[in-house]
Automatic annotation (TrEMBL):
Matches recorded under InterPro entries: Endonuclease_7, Endonuclease_7_sf, His-Me_finger_sf, His_Me_b4a2
UniProt entry keywords in alphabetical sequence: Endonuclease, Hydrolase, Nuclease
Gene3D superfamilies: 3.30.60.130, His-Me finger endonucleases (3.40.1800.10)
Annotated protein name in UniProt: Endonuclease
Keyword set includes Ribonucleoprotein: no
Domain (His-Me finger endonuclease beta4-alpha2) ranges: 91-142
GO molecular function, one term: endonuclease activity
Keyword Cytoplasm: no
Pfam families, per database record: Endonuclease_7 (PF02945), His_Me_b4a2 (PF18275)
Amino acid sequence: MPILTRCYICLPLDLALDCKVMKNIKLKMATKEQKKKFVYARKAIVISGETLVEKDAVGIVVNSNPPKSEIFFVRAWINLFLDSAEFKSFDVSKTGDQFPKKICNICHRLMKTDNFDKNQNGINNRSVRRPSCHDCRKELDGVKMSNETRQKWNKTKPINIPYECPICCKRTIAGITSKVVLDHNHKNGQARGWVCDSCNTGIGRFKDNQELIKRAIKHIS
């Protein structure tokens, strides 16, 4: 804006307008280049019998020198040189719940939004979908508890009584000032015990992975 103002004051009107036009052209060119930055693989990339990149995997153009371009693929975390026919550019700003396609936050594939389960309703009753696709969500959820196991543990659920979470030691009134949930092992479906919902969510965020938790401990140490 300061540049345009200076143009109008210091330059003849026709030159000032030229400056404005040139700036708009540059903005359009920058936007166009930005849209080209994100691409997805048209097919799986297989090298020496190993699938390095899945079909529809999202990548970012690192360097373009037609007919080859260097693409960094997010999920695989590798750079590959591909022919232009092996990938297609897309506008990443037009992906998500309100658009026909969305990027999975785990496999980082661009796919139809219908491949993401509905989670809840957001503002203006707009449907909000999960960030992970069906396949990744299924793998993430792992083995569910059996109804028999859940029914057995439900008999011991703390309700309307003083409760201290065995993980964070938060003291509350179960069901009144905190939500108590049954945590379970996602690998074998076995229950591990009652914890507050915050700790249960935290464990889930770390994917029940002890190595990730150790890294977190090291990070905050």
